Amino acid sequence: MYTQALNSSDGDDRGVEDVARTSQFQARIDADERIEPNDWMPAAYRKTLTRQISQHAHSEIVGMLPEGNWITRAPSLRRKAALLAKVQDECGHGLYLYAAAETLGTSREELVDGMLSGKAKYSSIFNYPTLTWADIGTIGWLVDGAAIMNQIPLCRCSYGPYARAMIRVCKEESFHQRQGFEIMVTLCRGTAEQKAMAQNALDRWWWPVLMMFGPPDQVSQHSDTSTKWKIKRFSNDELRQKFIDATVPQAEFLGLTIPDPGMKQNENGNWVHSPIDWDEFKQVLAGNGPCNRDRLAARRKAHDEGAWVREAAMAYAEKRKSRQLAQAAE
Amino acid sequence: MATPNVPLWEVFIRSRNGLAHKHVGSLHAADSTLALQAARDIYTRRGEGLSIWVVPSNAITASDPSEKGMMFEPAESKIYRHPTFYDVPDEVGHM
Q1: DSSP letter string over A63-129?
Q2: Where, by residue number, does the polypeptide cross the bilayer (chain A) (predicted)?
């Protein structure tokens, strides 16, 4: 569900491959052809996509943690069932994406180890805590809302397996946003305390959500090649603007105040936000957000505690296989 | 930390009676039973399927995309295999 600042590429390892193949490849991209796993592709395209898709997958998996935090404390059975289904979807999204990343030639085990060792990044938004039930509503409404803005253009990404995975993800994402917004509507129509809780959650999540779209265009050095390769179809600022313009009337409907007193509507009707604190973004990406250590520790614990299950399943499969072979030989 | 690689499976789902199984993606599982269960959980959470096939990925033989020109050339040159190749007088009407 969540890509952000993942569309970075390495510029240096190009130039070694022959020019003819590279220009043929670019011609295919320009003709809106899809690139498939066994097709020739520049090493930098492969590397950029492996990183972007796997980081997207890690984000889905780590994204299960802040919401999973509230499954046992959901206020009703209806909410609990919905949240459980949503967290299961996030897991499914992670798995579609890992499968797409693997088609580029890196094994699942390597990809997962990259996340567990802290080498690979995931979306910074999941390093913020979910302090109240209203955070679950806000995540669905805003975090999934931002993710949808990011992901719809990715359904037309030049790499076939990624585009196909994103189509599946987008189909399921709309339920997530609507369940979140429904929670917000309920809280905002509830007691004064419930409404204050909703406002408090919006106050804490608004700025981190705007950061999900990545650095502003003038400092985002990676966009050019990704745009040329049709991995990225809109700039960070364009998507951020689209998101804000869609969200302002929704907040108004809820009777909530967006925590940006300086936000103004310009002559085109777009809402212009105040400057974003990019130092905070950098700090969270660098591992110093409120929950970074907690999230990685939880993932490592789950991975380690599941090791015996993976080993047992493989041992059982081996045993059955050798038994079948022995029977066949009789 | 590296664990042994778990085998890869390709998943095919028949969405409604009368339609063929269609490739939907892949997954890792130790054996075919676990692969079927994982395929159900990953690819049919919203009633997408009536039937699932799982096939070990290494059992699939694929054509080479770099040789697709030669591979599919025989079909390119035979326009007489298409109905529009044949002239039917207008008076005959739809055929």
Answers
A1: THHHHHTTGGG-SSHHHHHHHHHHHHHHHHHHHHHHHHHHTTT--HHHHHHHHHTT-S---GGGGS-
A2: none
Q: For all residues of chain B together, what is the average pLDDT?
A: 89
Its pTM stands at 0.89
Query: Each residue of A152-206: pLDDT tens digit?
Result: 999 999 999 999 999 999 989 889 999 999 999 999 999 999 999 999 999 999 9
Cα separation of A153 and A238, whole Å?
12
Listed in order, strand segments (DSSP E) in chain B are 8-14, 22-28, 51-56
Q: How many CA atoms lie within 13 A of A34 on its CB side?
A: 12
Question: CB–CB of B31 and A310 under 8 A?
Answer: no
Q: For A106, name the nearest residue in chain B, comparing CA atoms only.
A: B5
**What kind and span of H or E run contains B81?**
none
Which architecture does CATH list for A19-289?
Up-down Bundle (1.20)
Of A92, A307, A320, the CB nearest to B42: A92
ipTM score of complex: 0.82
Token pair 């990044």: residue:
A121
Burial-class residue B68 by CB neighbours within 10 Å (0-12, 13-18, 19+): exposed
Segment holding A62, helix H or strand E: helix A43-62
Q: Which residues of A touch B31 (CB under 8 A)?
A: 313, 316-317, 320
CB atoms within 10 A of CB A96: 28
Averaged confidence pLDDT in chain A: 92
Residues of chain A with pLDDT under 50: 1-15
Query: According to the model, what pLDDT value does residue A252 have?
Result: 97
DSSP tag of A204: H
CA distances from A224 to A163, A220, A285 (A): 20, 9, 22
Cα–Cα dist A53/A126, whole Å = 17
- Smallest Cα distance from A160 to chain B, Å: 12
For chain A, the structural domain boundaries read: 19-289
The two tokens of residue B4 are 């042994």
Mean pLDDT by 10 residues, chain B (95 residues): 75 89 94 96 91 95 85 88 92 90
Share of chain A above pLDDT 90, in %: 87
Contacts of A161 (CB under 8 A, 6+ apart): A36, A37, A99, A100, A103
